[in-house]
Specification:
Elements: E1 2-5, H1 9-12, E2 14-21, E3 25-33, E4 40-51, E5 64-67, E6 73-76, E7 95-99, E8 106-111, E9 116-122, E10 127-132, E11 140-143, E12 155-156, E13 159-160, E14 179-180, E15 188-193, E16 206-210, E17 215-221, E18 227-232, E19 243-248, E20 254-258, E21 267-270
Antiparallel strand pairs: 1-2, 2-3, 3-4, 5-6, 6-7, 7-8, 9-10, 10-11, 11-14, 12-13, 15-16, 16-17, 17-18, 19-20, 20-21
């Protein structure tokens, strides 16, 4: 469900996946690529185990991976559609975790998340943003802060109450979203920042894949991470179906995967206009 290359990939050929396991948990696994790129070998199996999984439905498994500027592996997890999980500091569900990629040591970095679908690092700032699905309203983009609580609390006396707000104002110190969809939701997914003068006015913009809305949302953010402008990327608005993951490439392009099924999915390479 998630994939990330080690910052030293060119020298160590190491990468990380996040996936469901038949034993009933979600795991982060470390791999190395063969010199001819023909195969992968598991080298930490798992690097992190015991992430919660809803074995009945598979709902809200999270599993987005991204590297923080300081080299920690960030893991976005889902709340498994269990009401008490996102506010429980003892659970790894509904959190963003910091993981030591060498040892697998885990730290709960933020809590109060519903189902983290995207993580994006803003180059040169240390800022990390998460992207989440709302229930029937309020998909969110959040600027993450160590120890922050992002306010999802669907614990309805033991049930999973999805009528509550994505950011519960009754939680002391709950951090409001940088951006929220309101109603209806767009089904926001993977995200990345566009960097480089070749992008022109798009330089520095956060782009987010949209599943239900079938396109790419662009957010222009201030230096403090606050929203300045939002717009749809017109070239991808309804032209390629459901957009799942976005990733900036080392070649100055960004890459997107579609999620429509039936053998029709594509890997798109998106470049600035010449």
């Amino acid at each position: 469900m998630g994939l990330a290359l080690d910052p030293a990939f060119t020298s160590n050929a190491r990468l990380y996946s996040c996936q469901g396991d038949r034993d009933g948990e979600i795991q982060v696994v470390a791999w190395t690529a063969a010199p001819d790129w023909s195969s992968l070998t598991r080298v930490a199996d798992p690097l992190v185990g015991g992430l919660p999984l809803n074995t009945a439905s598979g709902r809200h498994g999270g599993c987005r991976l991204e590297f923080a500027p300081d080299g920690a592996l960030l893991v976005g997890t889902g709340d498994t559609a269990a009401g008490a999980v996102p506010q429980d500091p003892g659970s790894l569900g509904g959190k963003v975790l910091r993981v030591d990629p060498a040892t697998g040591e885990v730290e709960v970095w933020t809590l109060g998340h519903r189902n983290v679908q995207g993580l994006a690092v803003r180059r040169g700032t240390g800022q990390v943003f998460s992207v989440e699905h709302g229930p029937d309203r309020d998909d969110e983009v959040n600027l993450l802060r160590a120890g922050g609580n992002y306010g999802w609390n669907p614990d309805g006396d033991g049930s999973y109450d999805e009528s509550v707000p994505m950011t519960d104002p009754g939680i002391p110190g709950a951090i409001p979203a940088v951006w929220s969809s309101g109603a209806p939701t767009l089904a926001t997914s993977g995200a990345t920042f566009l960097d480089g003068a070749a992008w022109g006015d798009y330089h520095g913009v956060l782009v987010i894949g949209l599943l239900k809305a079938r396109g790419v949302l662009a957010l222009r953010l201030g230096d403090d991470g606050a929203l300045r402008q939002q717009f749809a990327v017109p070239e991808l608005d309804g032209t390629h179906g459901r957009i799942r993951s976005l990733r900036a490439g080392e070649d100055g392009a960004f890459y997107a995967t579609t999620d429509d099924g039936d053998g029709d999915d594509e890997l798109l390479r998106v470049t600035p206009r010449s």
